[in-house]
Amino acid sequence: MNESQTLAPHHSDQTPHESSNPNDAVLSARGLVYSFGRTPALRGASMNLERGEILAVTGPSGSGKSTLMLCLAGILQPDAGEVAFGSRVISEESESARSQLRRKEFGVLFQFGQLVPELTAIENVALPLMLDGVKRASARTAAATWLERFGVGDLAEVRPTEMSGGQGQRVATARALVAEPKILFADEPTGALDALSGEQVMTQLVRVARDSGTSVVLITHDARIAAYGDRELIVRDGLIEGES
User: Fold this and answer.
1) Could you count the other beta carbons within 10 Å of the beta carbon of residue 13?
2) How far is it, in rounded angstroms, from Cα 130 to Cα 148?
3) Quick one: pLDDT at residue 2?
4) Which bin fits 188, alpha (ψ -120 to 50), beta or left (φ > 0)?
5) Measuring CA to CA, which residue among 187, 2, 12 is closest to residue 86?
6) Which overall architecture, per CATH, does domain 22-243 show?
7) Strands 106-109 and 183-187
8) Are 173 and 201 a contacting pair, CB within 8 Å?
9) Residues of the chain with pLDDT under 50
10) What DSSP state is assigned to residue 24?
């Protein structure tokens, strides 16, 4: 992953597990099972994500699509099954290793952006780089470039409370992509926006992902947003029910 300088590739604090990865997918899941207490959320879900692909994951509320994304991103550890990133079975790695993976290889974008309200736009976008050891000046330079790419460069010194919903989500998208992750996980990224703002965010997100070769897992219940994907997986009752 890169910003104004090239970041070193990730080296886990443990030896990565090896796994066969069907179709040479950049990310794959096999037989994922996850429950919240006695309530099953995933019941054996399996899928592949190809390099550079924008994959829309759809399904009704409560179907398990967000839980699937959290397992794929290493935020949740499945009760059974495996998630493989290349040859690494990340579902078997420690929380420390998975956190480092999210800093270096994965970007995560949530519905409400989750910007730090006390920080300006440029500080929010620079934050992931600084947490990973990039010097402040270099991180701010990279952050300014990404704000410009998303059309919000003029908001660099503005705090989230002074932004519109669409502006805030574009800043949050820039933050998720500033380290140039191999995979972006976007959970209902336009769910809190009006139709026009949602289209603007998705148009810019897709353009930047295509330019950088970033694979995207796009969680949405909106057919208009799913249409931005190259492929659509339908999740129902914790299983992948179909593909279009």
Assistant:
1) 9
2) 19
3) 43
4) left
5) 12
6) 3-Layer(aba) Sandwich (3.40)
7) parallel
8) yes
9) 1-21
10) G
